[in-house]
Write a structure and sequence with these properties.
single chain, about 290 residues, Alpha-Beta Plaits, 2 domains, four-stranded antiparallel sheet, 9 helices
């Protein structure tokens, strides 16, 4: 039915741990990481149009491309063909780019799930998983959300039992981080950072927030020294919060024991004129479709 619309909140993620485990002959690095969905969302709105009308994609951020360079557009191509028709997608960005929070991958997964729902394609998340993996390494996680152990180059996904809801404080400066540059710096280290993933998995269900966040960590912290990242780290540490990069950065998260601690630190981060500061929570689910009709 033309005008039928789906609204999909696409959640961000943090890496509670990220360990680099090796490098393949093709240059790709292998990793072990615990991914966790959080309640910061981009919003995708998918609307059916006339069957012969070419796909259109619009975005609230003018610098983000709205053609085949965008993973949302490529998701539509993967399901509807090289010249997809009958669909308009609008992307409302809330997750910052070049943050290590998975915004583009989450948007892509939301597009895959939403198109299947809107066009009644008989594909489950498991059916979509190999398609998602070809689009980008992090996309399969967002088909499920919650908490997951991710291994290999991102293709091996093991879902974990939900952990207690935890309070996180996220912050990011204006600068982004180049993932290839981050890996080059990692390769240049003579001693690799200590791993964190096994400890995080052991502590996932620990109700003691301090004990849990004490074992979180990211190998990229050893090679990321942007001035704004250092500023965020310093402010979080002043409030007794352990700062950890998400992905290859440049967003930093800190686990908080209560909302009062999060609010005090957030106020100081905002006073430092950092452009992105959010208090958020871990969530036990992924993308959820919301229907409407016009």
């Amino acid at each position: 039915m033309t005008g039928e619309t789906l609204r999909l909140p696409a959640p961000a993620k943090v890496n509670l741990s990220l360990d680099i485990t090796g490098k393949l002959p093709n240059g790709y690095h292998t990793l072990r990481s615990v991914f966790q969905a959080i309640d910061i969302y981009d919003i995708l709105t998918l609307t059916k149009t006339e069957a012969d009308t070419p796909l259109t994609l619009t975005c609230s951020e003018p610098e983000i491309p709205c053609d085949h360079r965008n993973l949302v557009y490529r998701a539509a191509m993967a399901l509807l063909g090289d010249t997809p028709c009958g669909l308009h997608i609008h992307l409302e960005k809330q997750i910052p780019s070049q943050a290590g929070m998975g915004g583009g991958s989450s948007d892509c997964a939301a597009a895959l799930l939403g198109i299947c729902k809107l066009f009644a394609l008989p594909l489950t998340a498991e059916d979509l998983r190999p398609i998602a993996a070809k689009l980008s390494a992090d996309v399969p996680f967002f088909l499920y959300g919650g908490t997951a152990l991710v291994e290999g180059i991102g293709e091996r996904l093991t879902l974990c039992d939900p952990m207690p809801t935890r309070i996180l404080l996220m912050a990011k400066g204006k600068e982004g981080v180049s993932t290839p540059e981050g890996y080059r710096r990692m390769d240049a280290l003579t001693i690799q950072p200590e791993p964190h993933t096994d400890a995080v998995l052991q502590q996932l269900t620990n109700p003691d927030a301090n004990a849990f966040f004490a074992v979180c960590g990211n190998a990229f912290d050893a090679v990321t020294d942007l001035a704004e990242v250092e500023q965020i780290r310093a402010i979080m540490r002043q409030h007794g919060i352990r700062p950890v990069l998400s992905g290859s950065g440049a967003a930093v998260f800190g686990g908080c024991v209560d909302m009062a601690q999060a609010e005090r630190c957030a106020a100081d981060l905002q006073a430092a004129k950092l452009p992105f500061v959010r208090i958020c929570h871990t969530i036990p689910h992924g993308i959820q479709c919301q229907y409407s009709y016009f």
